[in-house]
Fold these 2 entries.
Entry 1:
Amino acid sequence: GAVVSQHPSRVICKSGTSVKIECRSLDFQATTMFWYRQFPKKSLMLMATSNEGSKATYEQGVEKDKFLINHASLTLSTLTVTSAHPEDSSFYICSARDREAASATHFGYGYTFGSGTRLTVV
Amino acid sequence: AQSVAQPEDQVNVAEGNPLTVKCTYSVSGNPYLFWYVQYPNRGLQFLLKYITGDNLVKGSYGFEAEFNKSQTSFHLKKPSALVSDSALYFCAVRDPFYGNNRLAFGKGNQVVVIP
């Protein structure tokens, strides 16, 4: 089945530094990747949608200069949290949409999630 | 706009009893509906979906859900809950009318199965 690898699973960084989170589709081409943020006991908040080779579309209220998203290839998207602060501490999850499965009825209709990254800024 | 409501914060059920997690939705057109499960510090795992066809959908781990268009609901059910079913469950909807491929998630329900 479709697999999305997200790294790192946990990261602790100092306030003011930058952290990069990678999301890779291992056995399919992801035309679209979604980045979510999840607060404790809360739902997933969509941060941005990225399409391969184009700029990401950010949701209202999400700072594009702080959360840099790059989707340079059909198998890799990265989220960089720049100048991180303690309030950026959260659980970040990526989701990749399989171009082929998107029109199929398997693999959850093409949405596959990474295992998440627990970011702690100290 | 598409939206999902999961009215309960937590669902407690005794092991072996039926489990129901409620979900209602709002979309402009015909919905694509999904259920996901999340274990602590993990991503979301797909359980089942409704796109079209039979209103009763069977998914992974013995879960099923019934699409009810008149009540705009898509409740998740399992006939006999296991302790290992304790997790966070999310209902999600995609409104194909908008064509942006985005999923709207409910706030999630914590399911606690009591041994």
Entry 2:
Amino acid sequence: GENVEQHPSTLSVQEGDSAVIKCTYSDSASNYFPWYKQELGKRPQLIIDIRSNVGEKKDQRIAVTLNKTAKHFSLHITETQPEDSAVYFCAASRGLTGGGNKLTFGTGTQLKVEL
Amino acid sequence: DAGVIQSPRHEVTEMGQEVTLRCKPISGHDYLFWYRQTMMRGLELLIYFNNNVPIDDSGMPEDRFSAKMPNASFSTLKIQPSEPRDSAVYFCASSSRGLANYGYTFGSGTRLTVV
């Protein structure tokens, strides 16, 4: 089955700096890669996703890049703000081409944005 | 849309008791997933349904866990008998086969404590 590794487990940045979280996956058939943000005591919420036919996707201050050859993808947050502090999870699946979009999650990154 | 609705939000029970967690997916979503979240193991997929049919229950820890989806708007996850190691947050999520939305929407979760 799919295995997703995520690094780092904790990340501390100064407000206004950029943050980068990296994930690798093992299943070459995976074609859908979402990122979720989970604030303390809350549900995970989808913040951005990318499909395997795209190398990069951007939405305001967040962007995701995908390298299919190396089987890794990354989340980039620019101009970080205190409200970006949360746990971020990457995930991978075969989408609807197989496995019914069963997501395998990384272990999470605790991001802390300091004033 | 009210989103994915889970009940109860919190459950405290004694070891050996039966516990039933409930989930109402988003109307029109044809996939439903049950995940368990702990500090040690992160987000683990327990079971998922497509059109009310269980597709993959390989993540169910043992026979003490069972899940049902009698109709498109309701699912239950039952633990009998419960054990302290079952303490976790249990999330239900739903998604759609529609091309516009591969990503899951999570419910608010049920925090289960078995004492």
